[in-house]
Every structure is written in C-alpha cells, then in structure tokens.
Amino acid sequence: MSVLYYDLSEQFLASGLKFKYYGISRTVMEVGYELARSEADVRFVIFSPGHERFFEVTPRIGADSPTGILDPGLPPEATPIRMRYTFPKPNKLRDLLYPVALWGARMINLRRWRAVPDGLVREVDLNGQRLVSLGRPKIMADYLTVTARAGVSIKLNPLLHDMIPIYEFAHSSQTMFCNNFTHDNHIVIKGSEHVLSNSAFTKAEIERFSASGHLPQVPGVTVVPLSHELRTTDETVVQRGPAEPYVLCVGILTGRKNLECVMEALLHLHTTGRPVPPLVLAGAQRKRTDSYLEQDRFDPIRDRINIVTNPNQAELRNLYKGALALAIPSRMEGWGLPLGEALWLGTPGLASTEAAALKEVGGDLAQYFNPDAPEELAALIDRLQSDPDAYAALKARIAARKDELRSWKDVAYGVLDAVDALEQPREAGTALP
C-alpha cells in the first residue's frame, strides 16, 4: 500500500485532552496509536484553520503523550477556534457578517499557532493523496470546503460513526444541530473516495438515507467494526465506585440514552421489596441529568445514586471491574463502546434490544431487555445479585471467550485492509465490499 495520511484534527481541535476518553475522540486516538506502531507507511496530519492548510505532525505515543496513548504532539496553546465554513441554508444577515467573524477567528488562530516550535511540523500537500479520517463530519466538511476552493482534491476515506441526529426524535429541540449534521455529511460523502462505517447497522443506515435522498449517493461502504478493548494506562486513580457491587452506566443521559429506564428499574426493585444495588453514573456532568435526578419520586433510592464525573481511563477500568453489571439502555447506538469495554474486562453487560448495533457488540455474551420495559432490566439485575452461581457462570463464560473480542489493533488493520482494497485491481463491474 502507498503512503496513507491519517487525520488527527479531531484531537488538535480539543487539545487531545478534554474529550479523550469518550466516543469519537477515543476512536481517533486509539486507532492512531496502533497505526503509529504498525509497519504501514502512515503519516499523521492536522488541518490548521488559521492557515486553511494541512500540516504533517509527529504524534507522541505511550508514556511520551499526556493522554497516555497518543496525541498530535502540539502545545495546547495552539488549539484553534473552530468556525463553520458553510451552512445548510442562506441567511442574509449572517452571510453578511460571518466573513468578518471568520477572518477574526483566523487571526486569533494564527496568533495561537506561534506557540508551535519551529521545525515541529511541516506543511503537506494532500492533492491526490489518500486521507483516512475517523473524526466528526463537521471537521471534515470544513477542510473539504476549503481545500476544494483551493483546487486540492483529497482521496478522503471517512469512518462515519452514526446517522442518529438525522432522526428528529434524537434532537427534537436541536433542529439546527440536525440540519448542520445532515449538511456536513452531504459534504463528506460527496467528497469521499470510499466510506467506512463502524458497524453493519451504521452501514445500513447510511445506505438507507442515501436511497431516500436524505444523503447523497455513497461511493461504497465498508464495515470496520470498532473495538471492545479498554487499554491499560498509568493514570492515577482517585475516583472509585462503591465497595459493594453496583450497576454501572457510562455516558448515559435522558432521552435516546434512556437513563429513564435504569431509574425506573431501580424504583421497581424498591417497590417490589427486592434489594436495590448502588448505581454509578460515569461521564460528563449534564444539567438535564441533574434536573432529572432531582425529582422527588427518586427520594427512596437517592442514597443509591453515585456520580463519577469525567473518569480517566484507569478510573474507568476500575469502575468496570467493580461493577455487578453494565447497563446500556440506549434506543440507538452506532456501536456502543461501553458494552464492549465491560465485556473485555469480564463484566456482564445488560443491553437494549432496540439498538441493533449493541447486538453486534455483545453477541450472545450480553443479556438483553426491552428499553420500554424497565421491569425486564430489573429482573436481570435481580437475578445477577441474587443467584451467585448463575452470576459466576456468566462471568466465566465471558472470560473464556475474550479472544473473540476485537482489539484496537484489529480496528486499525481493518482500516488498512479497507484502504488497501481500493488499490487492488478489480474486474469491471465488481463492487468494493
């Protein structure tokens, strides 16, 4: 395979730190780490909004990185302000004033760039080059817009993580977000050589929305399933879970993530006289979650609720290991990293039947419940805590099949294989996988 460029702009825009443990940023970081350790000719780049050009960087990995895994190797002082380059619909006042704001942001970004030591990066011309990006579509849409204006044609191979915002129910109060998301994906798909997806479910959604006209025609989609692995790091563990076994939820919110189901399940255990295990909610603090939990109806189980805010990776590993089980009641997921991570560490996973991707992650190792039937989740929790023999057998079965679970190295090599297939000669009319 010829040289492949790998996009670290996602980390650059967040300094590689603020969101390093969650979702898309985690995926960019983990796959980048494995590619950096591979023998493939992979070079790492970031898009600078100040220069509106790409620069090749040398990422720091392992102990040399402040993330403990991988980062772009740039000082946090150089982190740019991001401004959109296009909008779904015209607006006379915005379109009149926005170029001034965009110019101002560029000046700030160029000033911040002065924090980058001389010789640390070099400008790179990606015209005709193959670029893989696992970041958010809005970042890709920005640089595709700018490079197209400059006459630069990139062979982009994006990995799309989900199409969830296209569903109105997912962000019923965030129409602008949904419109921007759809608009960005239009730009990304039109500008792609080939598309990767993180699950068979996401692939089917991309193709379905393309067929319905909500998205452009896709050039082809290859599934590269994400990982179950949660890598060991040397970070200090400060935040811990309760001493007794607890139900763990990672990144769970009200709405699509369906925190409501878990709370109703615990209330059901209480009202039916069954033991109520502690609940640990791990992730970013959200006002809507706090408001929801403040309801008087949760007073009978309030002392069982524990919140762990923004745990680092070492803390997250400890939380998984100490849990009775992980509960993931989502109505829709593109993949579902917490379920995979729980299974990787030998912790039972209780997953929603409504989110098809979770079945790809959990297979027959997870246990499933109807997310609209909290009593089903309550019954699963009650069995785990009241039948030690069945619980021990379940944990032994999960541990015995760990070799079947996917590592981040598997994901990285899946990306390389998908891109390598683009270079292989094919018979006329033969489609890519």
From TrEMBL:
<protein>
    <submittedName>
        <fullName>Glycosyltransferase involved in cell wall biosynthesis</fullName>
    </submittedName>
</protein>
<keyword id="KW-0808">Transferase</keyword>
<dbReference type="Pfam" id="PF00534">
    <property type="entry name" value="Glycos_transf_1"/>
</dbReference>
<dbReference type="GO" id="GO:0016757">
    <property type="term" value="F:glycosyltransferase activity"/>
</dbReference>
<dbReference type="InterPro" id="IPR001296">
    <property type="entry name" value="Glyco_trans_1"/>
</dbReference>
<feature type="domain" description="Glycosyl transferase family 1">
    <location>
        <begin position="242"/>
        <end position="396"/>
    </location>
</feature>
